[in-house]
Amino acid sequence: MSGPALAVLEGRAEGPVLALSEPLSFWGGVDPATGRIIDVHHPAHGATVSGTVLMMPTSRGSCTGSGVLLDLVLGGRAPAALVFAGPEDVLTLGAVVAAELFGHALPVFRVAEPAYAALAKAGHARLGPDGIEAEGLALPVEPLSGVDLALSEGDRACLAGERGEAARQAMRILTVLARQQGAERLIDVTRAHIDGCIYASPANLIFAETMERLGAKVAIPTTMNAISVDRENWERQGVEPGFGGPAARLADSYVRMGARPSFTCAPYLLADAPDAGEAIGWSESNAVIYANSVLGARTAKHPDFLDLCIALTGRAPLAGPYLDAPRRAARILDFETPTNLRDAGIGDGFWPLAGYLAGLASPDRVPLLTGLDRLKPTPDDLKALCAAFGTTSAAPMLHVEGVTPEARGAALPEADRVAITLADLAGAWARLNAGPEAVELVALGSPHASLAECRALAVALDGRRCAQGVSVIVTAGRDVIAEAWAEGTLARLMASGVTVFPDLCWCSISRPVFPTEARTVLTNSGKYAHYGPGLSGCAVRLGTLSDCVEAALTGRAPARLPPWLG
What we know:
Glucose Oxidase, domain 1, Aconitase, domain 3, 17 helices
């Protein structure tokens, strides 16, 4: 039927087959406490992954999915086995860490078409190193351990424990993932960005403190993602100690390991952003896509936990977007754009919608987006585009013709074409904008707001007070907040009743910082419009910045198309 299956992580398992028709992000998509799929936009919403032979083409979305999987494993709620149609890093890494550090085996297999499609139709499957069996289907299995990987003298010394136990464990994990990616060797990277500092589950803390006890110290400059609490103020904000305490401990553990407490999901907004061509080791999906696409730096979409392994060793697998060929576009997305977009509000709401649809249209390959250069996107427009793209695609980057630095000649000769029409844009907007008209919370800053975005909100509010019963919250990095304070923008926002929080972001915020009375949330973030319903239990609607300001002042946001689609 096809070649043999590959045992990425060996082991035996059997169980009912749960075959997903499209990729899933475990973070924001699976409840780690129950194993239930909570992504309301996924076709399998409500199904439970625990105990199943879970099949999907690949994963997508957040790098934090590895932490969710590890928590499921440690809590006895994991799938019995994972089966992918091609290479997959995020969930595989969670399974690698479970095996290497905690002795819990979760088999991972890769099955090529057409055998993958046949297995997906089975009701029950048995998998092991000697083969896969399921209702008339029998597949031989080959081990991943046979894949060659050339190691430097430094790599071998690290594996021998010469740099300490934590670095040895980190190098072991790196080599396993490098082999499954098909890398021939590891390369040096100049800097790392830690995404695993988000307290997505207890597993994140268990991993960090385990590595710290083993003597972990970062070997290269390392920044940190947004965390799950306002580090200095969470106790005064009424956050439950059972959550706030572990979340703060997690952040502190990474700081003690030598990471810089930048606490931002937009490290590209920091003053020392990477240069074009620079090989870096970043985690966090939107940051990775922006770094590759807009800055022209080079990084894979490293899963949580691998980010620390890279920081401890300064090494990363030479695979994926570190190489030239995987950065080429295998699909061309031809956008039909409104002629009045600039007149209707400088792309207000367009870019998150375009990114969301681009990810759906190119879920497993790098795309080239055409027809957008005349809109002259700003860095913040591209931030919104990349973040939304990362929620619906597994690809680590995109190109925008006439805009991004590697777009010229990016399309492969065999690249296919997909048209994204105004009708597609209108249909997607209607789906993401649907919900109650009354709004109790306006959520801005996912990813973290830039200084320009803070200024734009202050100008739009123009000193007017937010309506009673409506909370308006912006999340931003410490550096941006300091600049906004110094120039008076923060004072203007506060005078209008806007709250600006450092350190955390919308994808990690918890109650009561997330207002307990909120039932309907309006956001201008395509990323949070996607993840928000599953994370918050609220109706989360996508709106333009103008919609968000109107809701802030009146408490209402009628469901409607933006002016450039109306």
